[in-house]
Structure formats: C-alpha cells, structure tokens
C-alpha cells in the first residue's frame, strides 16, 4: 500500500530506519567499556557469547529490519491492533536466523522485538503518508502494542517464559511494557540529554549509564534478583552524579562481572535510543 487517498506519500528523503537500526546494533556492540556486557574488550558477564558471535548475529538479523519496515508499509491501512499478528512470522524467522548464526545462543532477542517494532512503525507511518519523527514512531509503537502487557503477562496463569515469571514475581513488564509505553524510559531519561555530550562515544556511554540507572532491567533481575537490579541502578546513578571517566566504567565492568550481572535490557534500549536520537536530530 503506497498511502492513503488524498495524502501525499512519505518523502523519499525520510530517514532509513532499518539502516539506522543496523548501524545502532553495530555501534552498541563495539561500544567499550560497557559494564557487564559484550564489547570490544571482553565478554562481560557472558560465558557463552563474544564479540565475533554478536557480529555474526547482527549480520544474520540485519536484513529482517527491512522486512519489518516493508510489512508496516504494506499493511499501513490495517488497524494497529492487527500489526503484531501480521509481523509475528517475520519475528520468528528473524529469531531463527539469529539462533542459526549463534548456534542457539540468544544474543539479540530483545533487540529483534524492540527494533523490529520501530522498523514496522516507520513503514506504517510512511505508508500512511505521515511525517517520520521520533515522537510519531514512539506513539505508533505504543499503539501497535496496546494491551500487550495485559494479554501476555497479566492474564498468564502459568509462567512459561522468563518475562512471565518476573512479572508474576516482581510485577516487571520488561520489553513488552517498554514498547507499550512508547519507549518511555528512553524518552524521559536519554533523549533529553543526548546532545549534552559532544563526543559520540561518550554520548553513548553516558546514555548507557542513564539507562542502567533508570531501567527496571529484567536481565539484571533474572541474574541477581531485585538486589542485583538496585545495585546496578545505584552504581550508575552515583557515576552520573559525581562525573565519570572510562576507568570508572572499567571498574564497574569488573564489579558486574564479579557479580554475574549483565544489563542486557539497557543495551537493547541503547540501540533504540540511538535510532530515535538520529531521527530527532
């Protein structure tokens, strides 16, 4: 579907969201030092993955973001409530491509979910002839995911996934809740401060700390319980308050590795932040 009658189609100069997604994934994994996470220095708290595996994973899933975009554009005239069902087969296929590239290791499942939704929303907005802005993208993702937490977490009687278990134990909504909120954590705690750092690397590291300080990261809770989450949140907040150097992040990396903590949910949101910040710029 090219667009709605009477509405000019989206400009050919509109941001290439699938391309921005692929670049954001590469920038995120190379960003170093990244406490507890796979980066250019080490594998963080992960014994089953490393940088080459992440690069293979990005190569495998990268083309699928164009597929999500195309599906969003093709079905732009359908109701937002239908979009999750329409993109689900592509999401499953994308995850399968990831697992094939990593020999069964989950490197980017959260990223596939969040960034796949961003790509779908971008295609949907362009198919409707609407301007592609960061706020419009977030609103579209929220609309697509309306009721998702209720359907998949609240009414789930038996926890069949880590996300469902953590919701039942602690009320954490994870990636589903963040998407349904239109990436509220990113909008409140990262985007307003993105341009306060002129150095691109420091900008991303600062954004990572802001996410670690604010995000109720289910990856941290699954490894260290609520105590692990609070430890990382307080640690990141303290570094932000006092001012930080890369040596501080290297020390934090060692501390998180020692506690087997990995803020993987915040890493996914860092990639989301980079895409939205690029569009907002």
In short:
This protein has 281 residues and is an all-alpha fold. The chain contains 14 helices and no strands.
Any chance you could write out the topology, listing elements then pairs?
Layout: H1 17-30, H2 51-61, H3 64-74, H4 83-102, H5 109-127, H6 134-144, H7 148-154, H8 162-170, H9 174-180, H10 184-189, H11 200-214, H12 218-242, H13 246-258, H14 264-280
Account of the 3D structure:
This protein is mostly helical and 281 residues long. It has one domain (17-280): Orthogonal Bundle (Triphosphoribosyl-dephospho-CoA protein), CATH 1.10.4200. Helix content is 66%, strand content 0%. It contains 14 helices and no strands. The chain starts with 16 loop residues before the first helix and ends with a helix.
CATH topology: Triphosphoribosyl-dephospho-CoA protein
Envelope shape = globular
Number of helices: 14
Q: Please give the CATH architecture.
A: Orthogonal Bundle
Strand percentage, roughly? under 5%
DSSP E strands, number? 0
Q: Fraction of residues in helices?
A: 55-70%
Largest sheet entry: none
Computed Rg: 18 Å
Low-confidence stretches: 1-12
Derived structural class = mainly alpha
Order of helices and strands: HHHHHHHHHHHHHH
In whole angstroms, the N-to-C terminal distance is: 28 Å
Average per-residue pLDDT, rounded, comes to: 93
Q: Using the coordinates above, name the CATH class.
A: Mainly Alpha
Kindly give the count of domains: 1
Labels describing this entry:
66% helix; mainly alpha; disordered N terminus; Triphosphoribosyl-dephospho-CoA protein; 0% strand; 281 residues; single chain
């Amino acid at each position: 579907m090219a667009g709605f009658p009477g509405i000019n189609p989206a400009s050919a100069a509109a941001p290439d969201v699938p391309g921005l997604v692929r670049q954001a994934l590469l920038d995120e994994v190379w960003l170093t030092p990244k406490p507890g996470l796979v980066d250019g220095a080490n594998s963080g708290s992960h014994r089953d993955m490393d940088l080459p595996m992440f690069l293979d994973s990005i190569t495998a899933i990268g083309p699928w973001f164009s597929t999500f975009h195309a599906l969003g554009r093709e079905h732009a005239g359908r109701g937002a409530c239908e979009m999750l069902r329409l993109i689900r087969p592509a999401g499953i296929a994308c995850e399968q491509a990831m697992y094939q590239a990593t020999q069964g290791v989950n490197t980017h499942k959260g990223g596939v979910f969040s960034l796949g939704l961003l790509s779908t929303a971008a295609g949907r907005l362009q198919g409707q002839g609407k301007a592609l802005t960061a706020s419009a993208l977030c609103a579209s993702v929220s609309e697509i995911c309306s009721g998702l937490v209720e359907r998949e977490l609240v009414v789930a009687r038996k926890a069949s996934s880590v996300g469902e278990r953590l919701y039942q134990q602690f009320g954490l909504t994870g990636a589903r809740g963040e998407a349904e909120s239109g990436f509220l954590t990113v909008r409140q705690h990262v985007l307003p401060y993105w341009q306060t750092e002129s150095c691109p690397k420091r900008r991303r590291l600062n954004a990572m700390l802001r996410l670690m300080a604010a995000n109720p990261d289910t990856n941290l809770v699954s490894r260290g319980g609520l105590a692990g989450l609070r430890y990382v949140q307080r640690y990141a907040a303290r570094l932000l308050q006092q001012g930080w150097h890369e040596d501080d992040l290297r020390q934090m990396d060692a501390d998180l590795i020692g506690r087997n903590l990995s803020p993987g949910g915040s890493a996914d949101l860092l990639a989301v932040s980079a895409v939205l910040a690029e569009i907002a710029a």
